[in-house]
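Q&A log
Question type: sequence-to-structure
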Amino acid sequence: MLKQYFKQAIQMLKENRLTSVISILGTALSIAMILVVILQFQIKLVGFRPESNRGRMLYIMGIRADSRNSGDRNSTAMSDGVVKECLYPLQTPEAVTAIASNRAIVSLRNRQLFEEYVIKYTDPGFWKVFDFRFISGKPFTEADFSSGLPCAVITNTLARKLFGSEDPIGKEVLMGYVPYTITGVVEAPTRAANSAYADVWAPYTSNTNYVNSMSCGGVCGSFQGVILARSASDFDAIRTEIKQAVSRYNATGREFVLGMNFVFSRLDVALGSNDVNGGILKGWKEYLTQTAPLLLFLLLVPTLNLTGVVQSSVQKRRSEMGLRKAFGATKGRLLTQVLCENLIITLIGGLIGIVLSVILLQLCKSFLLTKETAVTFEMLFKPVLFVAALFFTLLLNLLSAGLPAIRISREQIVDALNNK
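Response status: OK
Response body:
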């Protein structure tokens, strides 16, 4: 029976080509716009190199420093002292890293350049948390970090620009007029990997601006923390261990009391949680409150148009439907026939919509993401995309064809045969 419905749907597409094209394009555009919204969320949530383990990552984006005497409160990033006393001693995680971002001119001794690049000052744990692909060389070591040696890892893009080669190991670059020796070259990450992204990575101990911070009594600084758990089931245990570390830190009687606002999971970050103005933890309720009206609008507008198209095509077949009912076809059978036939159109539109959504994301990424964000195959083609496309395609089919199908299935046989 389904095979017969499929043949009838194909025949209808051939007979009503203009109507079919309008229906398919309307469906495709609707699905594409919905998927663009979903793709933005997917890019913020799912893992891809060098952040393949996002599902096991926790983020400390900021801290709170409260003065014991004046009552002043500061919401800022961590100092290196907080990192050393509260993050590095953690036993539950697989790896921990502290990251401070900056921009600086990267140049050569014999060739002065004036272009700024993103620099991340970090530690050896960074290379355990993130899975960069090294093209040549290796990351700086624990010994390099402990000694504060000025060494750096750069991207292959920057290596080609500065040296015309992806193997400049042992050569020097100038960052802020300080010579740094290149120890490794990695494949340039996309900006969508916001925690890992940079053009250059160096030990923060090589820059005195990030060591021995005295701001807020040694609490405030420039660092955010990223923690890689052995399993997502360890998140609660890690948060508990962090609270214990903060309590020990504050027990020393410092002038400022340390508070860690939130330890976010990747899902928290994707839903819009942040540490601005003391921190905001958002869940699905807040996210859907903002996003659902847009999705409904994008779904209902083409649905109303397609309902009219389906109603028109069903009206042309009233006599056929009446005859089928006269020969014993049930309301459920007629309802199934209309839905199945319209499903062919919406599935074709859904497939076109998937392709169109990727094109729209590329064309509009300057304001949907950032202009420099490289959208890769690994980021886009995840199971959630196809599940979402199928769900909204079926929902669109049900909404647009359901009402006409119910109406025609309830008609009296005589009225249908006489086309009344």
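Response note: The chain has a mean pLDDT of 81.
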